[in-house]
C-alpha cells in the first residue's frame, strides 16, 4: 500500500499542463513535489498565494512565506501574493481547474466531511466549504481506513458535512476510485494490494468491473 507521498505522487498524474490547482491542508500539499517538470501548473493557496512550488529544503525556509496550513513553502518565478478577498474571488469565480483536498470521511454519493470532529477543538472551517461549493473537479487524498481499521469510505458520512455530492475522485493508500452514480468505482489498486482487501476496507457501495490494474506511479 502507499504512504502519504505515494498518494500525492499518484494524484500528481491528474494535474495537467496549464491547470490552476488549489491544494488543501495535509496530504494535498505534497502534490507540488511530484508534478512533472515539463508542464506548467499554478498552485493556489487560499491564504493568498499563486505560484507555490515544492516545500523548501531544511535551512532554506522563510517564515513569512507559508500556505494555508501555516507550512513554509517555496514560490516559483512569477508568483504573486494577495489578500484573502482576492483569493476567494478566484475560488468562488471558478477560476481554479482542480481542487485537491484531504478528508476524514467520504460517502459513496460524493459527500465529504473534512473540517470538524464533534467534541474536538477546531479553529474554524477555513476555506473548505468555499472550495467544495465552487470547485467542479475535486480529488480527495486520504487514508482508506482510520487508526482503528474502520472504513472512511462510507455509505453515509457520520461527521458534519463540508459539501454534498461534490467529490469526483479519491486516491487512498489502497486504491484510486471514481465517485459517480451513487457508488465508488474501483479504477486502480495500490502496489501489492488485492481487490479483496479494498472490498473489505470499503463500507460504501463499491463497483468492481473487469480486471483492476495496479497503479503506475
In CATH, the architecture is: 3-Layer(aba) Sandwich
Question: Which superfamily, in CATH terms, is the homologous superfamily?
Answer: Glutaconate Coenzyme A-transferase
* Average pLDDT number: 93
SS elements, strand count: 13
C-alpha Rg (nearest Å)? 17 Å
**Global morphology:** globular
Low-confidence parts lasting 5 or more residues at pLDDT below 50?
none
Number of domains: 1
**Major sheet details:** 10 strands, mixed
Strand content: 15-25%
Query: Any idea of the CATH class?
Result: Alpha Beta
What is the number of helices? Answer: 4
What's the arrangement of strands in the largest beta sheet? 4-3-2-1-5-8-10-11-12-13
CATH fold assignment: Glutaconate Coenzyme A-transferase
End-to-end CA span: 12 Å
**Percentage of residues assigned to helices:** 10-25%
Give a verbal description of the structure.
This protein has 217 residues and is of the alpha/beta class. The protein is built from four helices and 13 strands. The strands form two sheets. A ten-stranded mixed β-sheet has the order 4-3-2-1-5-8-10-11-12-13. Strands 7-6-9 form a three-stranded mixed β-sheet, with no helix packed on it. Strand 2 and strand 3 form a beta hairpin. The protein starts with a helix and ends in a 10-residue tail after the last strand.
